[in-house]
Write a structure and sequence with these properties.
Layout: H1 8-21, H2 66-69, E1 71-72, E2 79-95, E3 105-120, E4 123-135, E5 149-161, E6 167-176, E7 196-206, E8 209-220, E9 229-230, E10 234-245, E11 251-267, E12 270-286, E13 290-303, E14 306-320, E15 329-337, E16 347-348, E17 372-384, E18 387-397, E19 405-406, E20 412-414, E21 423-435, E22 440-451, H3 453-457, E23 464-474
Parallel strand pairs: 14-16
Antiparallel strand pairs: 1-2, 2-3, 2-23, 3-4, 4-5, 5-6, 6-7, 7-8, 8-9, 8-10, 10-11, 11-12, 12-13, 13-14, 14-15, 15-17, 17-18, 18-21, 19-20, 21-22, 22-23
Length: 475
């Protein structure tokens, strides 16, 4: 999924054209997906799941997981415990990593995520430890590889009624957070270690919408046991509002403000303290046959004594042919993500997406959502009820030929100072997923990234090849 960024004024007509063409597949009810994070009835964060309906025996189906989902601790139903777990094994192999600038690499990630959710009246305590490891690689471990044994989530929450029939929820502690389409704050679910945040999260909601206010600091992952710490370098805060249309909540509008501070931000222009203010809106909808997700943002602030002037627009549109053979889904995603036009002036034009989805474009993409134009057509078919096969093609260009190429976490992959070429390259990816049971998802993918002129002019330029296979058991 793409984020959006644009140095708004001169590029606005182009961006509107891209939005009109943008699309990406979203799930229909009961439809098998190639993305394991959308497993049936479950969520990535786990704490939004509500199993209180199992207090009524007539609502139980007899499935083996139900005794773990509702464990009563009081006869009146006011106190109960929900438990669950995820066990995931994922292999990734890279040939010509970073187009040959890095050694070939292959490894296997392991993670185990049990959780317990205790409800006592209107209060709850949610705890989710993580046990993780990586095997097979000789390179240095990164924060997404392993954190040994640590606490991924641990927070207390209280819910109460306010005026007009609305409810308020206040939570304090460590938790996974995803806003909207995950373009700016997301869980980083694809890599081995998800991105957790420490802080306060307040939500005011009624039947028609919700308003969420928060102050969060990311958790810095370390390789030892119980040594993850709250970041003192970065923080994010904001207000995120959603208004739904209809009871299904498939269609609506998001408006938001996000503040971000980084005491040591890195761009092709240099390093320094960054303060960014992002305002934007997202229009989303799903009729079952068609779906859309269009988002635009502006970003202002300061960086190393210079002003920030970035922003953007982009989105996704798609169509499901549910009555056709193989139930194909066709889609196209497109974005314009602003870059810096002149590294020597007193303005930074590189958009900062803060904490975007780990699986941003293709499943294994070396390109991140900064200084980027991208177009991504895809098709998904279902040769069997529980099997999905997807083919995705992606083309990448630099938005500004004076700015560099960045990866998903925001690190500079190639400086833009040595080439005026715009075209980065193309990527093809084939993915297959089988929802073997309601709890077990098996998937594999293969991709190839063919370098364009910019890659050829700035360093090694071999075709990058990536293979992955994953088994994910969750209940």
């Amino acid at each position: 999924m793409a984020t959006v960024a644009l140095r708004a004024s001169r590029a606005w007509p182009l961006c509107m054209t891209l939005v009109a063409a943008a699309a990406m597949p979203l799930p229909a009810p009961g439809q098998v997906l190639t993305d394991v994070q959308q497993a049936p009835t479950l969520t990535i964060e786990r704490y939004p799941e509500d199993w209180s309906n199992l207090a009524v025996k007539a609502n139980r189906t007899g499935r083996w997981t139900e005794p773990f989902k509702y464990i009563p601790w009081a006869t009146d139903g006011s106190t109960y415990l929900t438990t669950g777990a995820e066990l995931r094994i994922r292999y990734e192999g890279y040939k010509n990593a970073n187009w040959g600038a890095a050694p070939d690499d292959h490894y296997t990630w392991y993670r185990f995520l049990p959780y317990a959710d205790l409800h006592v009246g209107s209060a709850r305590v949610f705890v989710q430890p993580i046990v993780s490891a990586i095997r097979g690689t000789g390179r240095a471990r990164t924060p997404v590889d392993t954190t040994a044994t640590d606490i991924l989530q641990a927070f207390a929450e209280v819910e109460f009624e306010v005026a007009g029939g609305a409810t308020a929820r206040v939570s304090v502690g460590r938790k996974l957070v995803s806003l909207g389409a995950g373009r700016f704050i997301d869980t980083r679910y694809g890599p081995n270690i998800p991105q957790a945040f420490d802080g306060t999260d307040v939500t005011l909601a009624d039947d028609g919408g919700q308003l969420r206010a928060f102050y969060l600091r990311p958790v810095d992952t370390r390789g030892g046991a119980f040594d993850d710490t709250t970041s003192h370098q970065r923080s994010v805060w904001g207000i995120y509002g959603t208004r739904w249309v209809g009871r299904e909540r498939n269609t609506g509008l998001d408006v938001f403000f996000l503040g971000f501070r980084d005491t040591h931000a890195l761009f092709d222009q240099g390093a320094g303290r960054e303060l960014a203010h992002t305002v934007g809106a997202r229009l989303f909808g799903d009729t079952g046959t068609q779906y859309w997700n269009l988002e635009g943002v502006l970003q202002r602030g300061s960086f190393a004594g210079k002003r920030v002037a970035a922003g953007g627009i982009g989105g996704e549109l798609g169509h499901r042919f549910m009555q056709a053979r193989l139930q194909p889904i066709v889609a196209l995603t497109a974005d314009y993500i602003s870059g810096d036009a002149d590294p020597g002036d007193k303005r930074l034009g590189t958009f900062n997406p803060m904490f975007p989805r780990g699986k941003y474009f293709a499943a294994q993409s070396p390109v991140g959502p900064r200084n980027l134009i991208h177009a991504q057509p895809s098709i998904t078919v279902h040769p069997a009820e529980a099997v999905a096969v997807s083919m995705t093609g992606v083309a990448y260009w630099r938005a500004s030929t004076r700015d560099g190429l960045y990866n998903i976490p925001g690190a500079l992959v190639r400086s833009g100072q040595a080439s005026d070429a715009r075209f980065i390259g193309t990527q093809l990816e084939l993915a297959v997923a089988w929802q073997a049971t309601a709890e077990l998802n098996l998937s594999t993918s293969m991709s190839a990234f063919f370098p364009g002129r910019f890659i050829r002019e700035t360093g090694p330029s071999r075709t990058m090849r990536v293979a992955a296979a994953m088994a994910n058991f969750r209940f």
